[in-house]
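tool=predict chain=A
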Amino acid sequence: MNLEKIKKIIVLSLKWILICILIGFFSGSASAILLLSLEWAAQYRDHNQWIIWLLPIGGLIIGLMYHYYGASVVKGNNLLLEEYETPKKTIPLKMAPFVLFGTIVTHLFGGSAGREGTAVQMGGSIADQFTKIFKLNSSDRKTLIILGISAGFASVFGTPLAGAIFALEVLYFSKISIKSIILSFLVAFAAYYTVEFWPVKHTHYSIPVTPDFDIEKLIWIIPISILFGLAAMLFSRSTHFWGSLFSKTIKYPPLRPFVGGIIFALAMYFIGTTKYIGLGVPFIVESFFKPSEYYDFLLKILFTGFTLGAGFKGGEVTPLFFIGATLGSALSLFVPLPLALLAGMGFVAVFSGATHTPISCTVMGMELFGIESGLYIGIACFIAYLASGPIGIYNSQIVKGPKYHLYEKFKRRKLDNF
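tool=predict ok
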């Protein structure tokens, strides 16, 4: 290798390291602002619960904003997936402030939504701006989208390893280069440590007891993991159902979250609890040491699917954590496994099924709960992934791997028998 080639490699490496640091810093800072804003919104809402009656107004504001000024970014996470698969034009930077504002409004007025989608969209739109700054080609632009997703996910949950793998896995591993893998990990840690510099605290979970693994426990793990997969399927289909229903019945988009807000506020009034609004983090934490009600996960599926389907903004992942943790916690009344372990397994397994990302979810479980529970979590994530069906929360995600081949074979058999 001559001196000129070595010089080019060094310059190229330094360029990508700089890009990772910049994306990590800006995406991490955006996630920190999001986390601080949502904490403020939750505290204000909890002390002023009358504000839930203003949810229709908040929904109308979000609807009007996206309809008249944000049509190019309304697809959210699906736009990132589409631009990765078929690069066309740079994702507008306005995606970041639009989704940030929409998510804060949704949470402030009591909508049931998450935060991962917001962080990933902010990270993706910020990262894609470096396409023009560094004059990158379409192949390098794909790498930028990976870096944006990685930075957003890692920073909002405080899980850099899972964030890096999630960005690679959700976009389908076989199309990912070695360069993208290395850079995804680099940017994930850059974003993670950026958030660490802010006055932001990530939620900590604990599985204090992990029993020795044996065949008897495996016999219990298989059916409950299938239940986690079915819960993921129900959530994905619920979100798509409500989105389709609102689109068909209300032709003027800004009215969808307005009408949805009215229905949601009335529902909260009649059920007499605010347990299912917002992120629900306190109830996720509670599920690790106190059995949840058997219907908690179903109501969270209903209200989150309705909120997002109506056009409010936020993510799906934290509600998926709520659904999985409360389902696992409720099962502790019947399953002879530790309560916290069941809650932790459900926490990541339902997420795995809904996003088709069992590897990153397994890593996330070990980052959050400790490596001791890794075998239980890994088995639960992969079984839930296979049991959750071919439809996930992201319409534009291309599903490959074991699940793809399993369902393709099943479809062919049905056609042959027909």
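The chain has two domains: 3-197, 215-405. Confidence is low (pLDDT under 50) at residues 414-418.
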